[in-house]
Amino acid sequence: MSDRTTSTRTPVRENRISRTAAMALMLLLAVYFLLPVYFLVVAATKPQGDLASTNGLAFSHFDLFGNLDTLFTRSDGIFGRWALNSVLYAVLGAAVGTLISALCGYALAKFRFRGREFLFSVILGGILVPTTALALPLFLLFSATGLVNTYLAVFLPSIVSPFGVYLARIFAASAVPQEILESARLDGAGEFRTFFSVAFKLMTPSLVTIFLFQFVAIWNNFFLPMVMLQKESLFPITLGLYQWNGQTARAPLLQESVITGSLVSILPVIVVFILLQRFWRTGLAAGSLR
Amino acid sequence: MTDLATRATRVVATTEGRRRRHNGGGPRAGTIAAFVTPFFLPFVLFYLVPIGYALWQSLLVVRRTGGQYGTSYTTFGGFEQYTQVFQNTEFWGSIGRIGLFGVVQVPVMLFVALVMALLLDTPLLKLKSFFRIAAFMPYAVPGVIAAIMWSYLYSPQLSPVVDALKGLGLQPDFLGPGAVLWSAANVSTWLWTGYNMLIMFSALQSIPQELYEAAKLDGASNWAIAWRIKVPIIAPSVVLTTVFSIIGTLQLYAEPAVLRQISSNISSTFTPNMLAYTVASGNNYQQAAAISVVIAVITFVLSFGFMRLTSKKAGL
């Protein structure tokens, strides 16, 4: 290889060939990633009858609004309820989760105390614990305390994110200079005031990152709500659509609502995603540092 | 921020005289506890206690007095549940499937992610941010929804993909007994390639450009720079994504559970997690707890083992 590249003519040709090959490969992969979403968009605009009879990748009779109407009025508007539940679980859970992660990560980064490293390693170990392995024992514990089949059964375990603490510690260490804390202390500010008035502002961009990661984790969660909830009115979207999808064999007309519902549930998150891109990158970059 | 910092140093300098220190300059233990407890208490309650509870449950057995219709009671059974797990052919079946899945899907996904990350880090491509977003976008899609979307693309009645392949004279059966595992693997690959790619890409971006200059002057090709310089430097990120992928594979539930709704070739014990859930649904919580513990232990051993193995190889 090095023999070939040392000559002066070949690199140019090699470059053009590899340029074309690289673009072709990436375009192919982009098609792969976008195809299912494109299919979903097309399918969500079709009347049920056209699903099987027309080409899945081509638009036919445009009936998106009819489908949305059916989706949101089916079973007394249960889908709207599921959407609201998902928003509640994810927004509140991620907000509370980010706050407690920030407090703990900040303390781990900025305070010296005995057992600090031990505490941090226990939390790091928590990142490796498969959360689905926790769901079944949690179900038993929650049924003993009467929490099963309530909002809290899904909400409470969702606020705990060891990965959030890990990120918060890294971000607090780099974003909050020690001198500022010292000076705030000398001015007589309590630790909590210092945290909320000084550190919190400095950490805000990273807190958005932590919030986003936890939001998506809760929004996408399926196993925990499935184990905890029987009452349909408490379901998040994922569990609701899963249940509908299981009924399509008996009630084929549900198919169109499963498709439209899937689209409705992923579009807002994808948009937020694209808008807040830079926050993802900070988080992923920090995640790759060790 | 620099402004704040200079102000802070000035304040520190002027107040040097009336500096008061209590136990080494840090806050009091009570204050520290107030910062740490809001996270740590729920962490103990919803992470550590369930682990302990599962361990305890897995050591219990339910016995009956007086035959089939006698009263049942729970008692300490030692490792009896674990013996049952290891004698259960369905358990080994699920481990075998997940092992096969992991050995093929994880390397394929990470290799594609690595190639994409390396290409995005070269001047070869246009439309870079489009490719990045397109690949990362599936991360926003819940596993259940992704599996539902793909199940329409697998379905013989609705899928344009099946239609296209039939047009080429093929007879694809994505939900057949041999193929369905790989159909589930494809959903996982679709979901996680972009996420892993971005982790590797972020690591690549943090390498200083000067590192390549010398190699470029020596006439090294992009190819050589990528595989001989870049890949070794970002090896820790590759290890990290591998560990996360191992954890994810062992937890597999949503994707096969959704495909099970349209394919009879996925049993209720297809993956270890599905087995645990099925056993728990039959009210055999002690057995389910033992299965959960075994899954968690395998996860730990594999992810730590992999980290140890790779750090030894790299001589760290």
TrEMBL record, chain A:
Keyword Iron: no
Principal cellular location given in the protein's record: membrane
Xref: InterPro entries: MetI-like, MetI-like_sf
Subcellular location: Cell membrane
Membrane-spanning parts: 21-41, 87-109, 118-142, 154-177, 198-219, 258-280
GO cellular component: plasma membrane
A Pfam family matched in the record: BPD_transp_1
GO terms (BP aspect): transmembrane transport
Membrane topology reported for the UniProt record: Multi-pass membrane protein
The ABC transmembrane type-1 domain, residue ranges: 83-276
Alphabetical keyword list: Cell membrane, Membrane, Sugar transport, Transmembrane, Transmembrane helix, Transport
Protein family (similarity comment): Belongs to the binding-protein-dependent transport system permease family.
Protein name: Multiple sugar transport system permease protein
Lineage: Bacteria, Bacillati, Actinomycetota, Actinomycetes, Kitasatosporales
TrEMBL record, chain B:
Cellular component terms (Gene Ontology): plasma membrane
Topology in the lipid bilayer: Multi-pass membrane protein
Alphabetized UniProt keyword annotations: Cell membrane, Membrane, Sugar transport, Transmembrane, Transmembrane helix, Transport
Location(s) in or outside the cell: Cell membrane
SUPFAM superfamilies for this protein: MetI-like (SSF161098)
Pfam families, sorted: BPD_transp_1
Keyword match Magnesium: no
GO biological process: transmembrane transport
Domain ABC transmembrane type-1 stretches: 95-306
TM regions (residue ranges): 29-56, 98-121, 133-154, 174-192, 233-254, 288-307
Family to which this protein belongs: Belongs to the binding-protein-dependent transport system permease family.
Name this protein carries in UniProt: Multiple sugar transport system permease protein
Source organism of this protein record: Actinacidiphila glaucinigra
